[in-house]
Amino acid sequence: MALIKSGFLGMFVMLLFQGNERERIFIDNSSEQVLLAFNDLPILVDSTGTMTFQEVVNSQKQFIINPGYKPKDYCVNCTYWVKVPLLIANSLDKQWMLEFYDQTIDHIWAYFPTADGSYEQDHVGDAIAFNQKPFEHKNFQWIIDTSIKGQQNLYFKIQSHTYADVRINIRTVNAFVRYSLNEYFLYGIFYGMIFIISIYNMLIYFAIREQKYLFYTFYILSVGVYAMCVDGIAYQFLWPQWPEWNQIAYGTALFSLIFWSLLFSKRFLSTNIKAPIIDRALTWALVLRTALFIYVLLFDHSLFEYRNIEIIPLSLIFYSSIHVWKKGYKPARFFVVAYGVLFLGFLAKALLYLSVIPFTTITYYSLHICFLLEMIFLTFALSDRVRILKSNRDKAFKRIINQQKENAELKDRVNKELEEKIKERTRQLEEKNLLLANTNQKLIEQTKEINAINSKLDLDNWKLKNNIKEILQDRLINKNLNLEQFQKIFPNELTCYRFLEKLKWGNGYHCSKCGNTKYFEGKTKFMRRCSKCGYNESVTSNTIFHRIKFPIEKAFFILYITNNRQKEYTLDQLSEMLELRRNTIWNFKKKIEKVYDGDSKNSSTVLIHNLFSSHLN
Description:
Layout: H1 2-9, E1 25-27, E2 33-36, E3 43-46, H2 53-57, E4 79-88, E5 96-100, E6 107-113, E7 119-124, E8 140-143, E9 150-159, E10 168-172, H3 173-208, H4 211-231, H5 233-237, H6 243-246, H7 249-269, H8 271-274, H9 276-298, H10 311-326, H11 332-353, H12 361-364, H13 366-477, H14 483-489, H15 493-505, E11 519-521, E12 527-530, E13 536-538, H16 552-563, H17 571-578, H18 582-595, H19 601-616
Parallel strand pairs: 1-4
Antiparallel strand pairs: 2-10, 3-4, 4-9, 5-8, 5-10, 6-7, 6-9, 11-12, 12-13
Helix pairs in contact: 1-3, 3-4, 4-7, 7-9, 7-10, 9-10, 10-11, 11-13, 13-19, 16-18
């Protein structure tokens, strides 16, 4: 971080400690700043964290310079004492100050010498309220008392639960102001782009209601909040009086970034359709990452430091975009580039922390640069998707227009052919109509003759029918019909059901549940549904024929035989005649006798007469 900031100002002075020849940092008017890395400074490591300032001052021989120090060597459970030996020139034109670049250090105790030889103490850190800083700036700064000429030692006690990038810049106040203005100007451009892109995509979402734009908006906002946490801007402007939240805010913002990134990727790439297996993998990554976040948030905040785990979901998203792109989904091409760049950014940060790659301006700000490029490419991806959809729509419109033209030409051709055929057909019809007129005249005359004959036949048929009905009715009432004769009256179940329907509802429908007289057609034929209570009543409900397991026309005959006491059939005879089991016939006869139990023979005869004579009438 220090390298990039010095790069903005264009001046880097390397301090070389060469034995006893160069043990002090000389401050004069020849330069404006001196940049010191952790491996350039005398360090004392207190593994117990119990050493007092006086003990540290008296332990000068324990301060050593470790040129081979790397960021991964930092001990989060140790206390580091840093000595900054200064040599102040006698005449200085400008005021000087000292600055720590890493704004994520939990605690820094600064000890500055005074004119009487004592030391003044100041306590700052991101675990302390923001307004406790000497300067309301995202970094930590102090003014150096240059009135003390010659040699003076500054001491700093550092404690941090996470890796601390101890890089110190000693420079003039003018250089600090110039650097600070330039830095905040660049931050304004970066976060302004994030804000504008977010507002733009939110407006698109409200216009077309596609969820991918909403997910992308939340993702971009999460990127902005995460970058603000990393840069220290969030602590300065969003929650300056909430240091407890500041300790876990970056972990929460990073989770939000990954969460919305997974949702946006699933929606944009349509993995549920184009890659179902990968879609399930993305869903599981989303569930597991959410479960891990909840656990870390509630039980163990130290796990927030394992940021390299985000390489897993990002790699999965990157692979998904390549897979969908290879399957022919063109809008995924910019998506592949965008997440490829972001993947490289996270990879560069991980390699930088492990000291695999050197600390430079590009490597430190690699993630910011990649975030910016990713937003640009994702915006291209969304625009490319809209362009491709528009192109497909235009092609579809052209196909529709061409098809309509062809249809119109075909219609005109067919209409002409039809007109010609209609003319020909009309001529033929006129000829036939003339022929039909003559034929109709003859038919009218024949009809008169036929009507006269039909009248005589109807009269004869009516007399014959009445004679037959009277004979059948008499035979039915006299109880002397056999099965073949009975089947002429009730040949099938449809005739029986119609007979029951007329007998049951011939005088009007009444619901057996509520007495309502209005109904709808039921689920099946010969069933009625009450319009009030909704009760479905079949034609056999509340009769001895309800839920029988054999044909109803045979049941009618058993009922008829049971009431015809003049001619008895044995169960075996009925079983052979009707092709039914003896037990079936016996049970049904018992059911009939139970219904008529107590009735006289004459009343039974009247009942059967009423049942079957109505069918004949």
